[in-house]
User: Fold these one by one.
Assistant:
Number 1:
Amino acid sequence: MQKPLFVSTALLLASPLFAYQDAPKYYDNVAPILRDKCEICHRENDVAPFALPDYDTAVTYSPDIQRVVSTGKMPPWKPVAGHGDFKGSFALTEDERKLILAWVEAGTPAGDEGKKLPPLENKSEWSLGYPDRVLSMLQSYEPPVGQDVYRCFVIPTDFDQTRYVKAIDYLPGDRGIVHHVLLYADTQGIGDKLDAEDPEPGYSCFGGPGIDIGLSTLKSLLGGWAPGQRAHLLPDDLGIEIPKGAKLIMQVHYFPASRTAPDQTRIGLYLHESKPKNTMFMVPVLNQSFEIPPGDAAHQVNETFPPAGLSTLFDVLHLLEPTKIATVYPHMHLLGTQIKVDITDRRGEVITPLIYIDQWDFKWQGSYDYIEPQLLKSGNRVRLSCTYNNSESNIYNPNNPLIPVRWGEKTTDEMCLVFMGVYSSALENAIGGLIN
Ligand code: HEC
């Protein structure tokens, strides 16, 4: 009895009449999705190569839209759903994805033009209002055309005491060429030294600004920006520390656009008036002692935090107060294919998935802020897993011929690293003395 019904429904679904009547329409269904999930970058003077402002353009690009939406290449929101709820996500929901694909398949019907969206407003410069301090690259820099360039610029601060920020916003000088920005505080003069050795403005830096990862890093990574990302204010009792006398190092990735222009990217700092109750620490979880054999297309490297020797100490600390994880920033280089971070119990059973990126792309890295902080409790561990493809099938493999690859900052080296932005008064008391 069921079968004939099924067949007729299938026939009906496949018929052009059905497709025309019930298929999603541009003005009614598709345009609002493109507005929220695509036009944050696909607009005039932004990072994407074309704008998607109206029906005609959407139709022109519809074969490409179909391809990139079905493969998941676009939008470039990397974390897999179900592994952490992040602020400002521009991922497509499964329904939105299906809807866009059904619209293309149905022949891109326009629908009710009366529902046309108003044109996009021009972006106001600073989304959180004018910052307390605006700092800028000292000189402009013009990257060469058609190349990936990672450059670090040293920016002095004029603070006569340690300050705490609630938010940092970034204004790329030229949104068509600036692909992402990471900001560090340097208290050791490392940036000035490297800058002095490089004749052009700033210095070349791929895997990081040259600051050693260790205790000194706990407060050195301040934040980052990638296209589509908006600044968020931290809660009133939480701040990011900029130590007295520190200089800022801004790492800018210029991506291979077909044109160039002088860029002078600015940052806006929103300051706490006084020291807030908690300071955010960037705890690196990393494995520096791996070797990825040439030819291995799925090599895995793992790491656990806290390290074995410190786990009892952290378990006691976490009885007093769980550590709150506010943000994560996963990092690998060009061989990386997947990165996964979980909170587990002592035996390794997953308690809370923190983040999972299943199609790692070095060009689309960033930090992700949790909507609600994640708790690291007594007995909990953080497990990091990095997967690499060091074979010829990896089109981004920088080594030809293939070689064994280890930890390092160069393009041809690798990293297995996640920074966790954490806070807790107990933790601060325990390690504060060590790093101040
Ligand atoms: C965060 C910024 C951003 C968002 C959001 C975004 N794009 Fe893109 N898009 C880019 C950039 C940058 C490129 C060019 C570089 C590249 O292809 O990676 C691009 C390229 C494309 C291309 C051409 C790439 C190709 O392989 O042909 C298409 C088509 C596209 N985007 C469609 C979309 C659609 C549809 C959405 C929304 C569902 C979207 N994009 C959301 C930044 C974005």
Number 2:
Amino acid sequence: MRTALQLTAVAMVLLAIPANGARVVSLAEALVAPTAQAQAPDAADVAEGMRLYLQKGDCQACHGWAADGRKMDSQMPDGSNLRETKLDRARLIMTIKCGRPGTGMPAFDKFAYSDGRCYGMKQADLKSPMPDPPATFQQREVELLVDFLLLKVVGKGPMDRAKCIDYWGSDVEACKEFK
Ligand code: HEC
């Protein structure tokens, strides 16, 4: 039996789908989503968030694999130490989707600065063009990435050997620098 509340949730999710149909939300997914969000992310989701951080989003190029600001690519802008960020979940999501105008932080929402969704600004309001992001993310990918950051990075203190082994799932080469 579906409750009125669930049906309202479905209706809201359906209304939230952009007209261009960037993402198709199945009815089942819409019904499951409200409960899934309340639970701790499972291991597969955390692994996916980490993959988005390291690979698809290439955040590590500027922020370092440990997100501590030790960037992997010396040609890239200096990304901040995300282990020490004071941003909460909502602000992390906003920063990833919208980037930060006037800095090297790219926007990962394909439609950022197209319709005012980012800080109420459009392309013409930007003093300088945003850098191209390594990839663009769907909302679900941003959520997974932020789940990962909040679980493994933000407020976790400097990387050390034990955290490194936990981070990679084993005592990999990258952990050798931590005695
Ligand atoms: C091309 C380089 C680059 C890439 C790629 C990049 N960032 Fe950034 N990021 C920056 C820079 C530079 C800043 C600092 C902005 C500033 O000076 O305020 C920043 C800032 C941030 C902040 C704000 C931190 C704070 O406390 O204010 C967050 C969160 C963040 N980045 C997350 C990410 C994530 C997640 C990814 C990957 C999806 C990513 N960044 C990819 C360069 C990058």
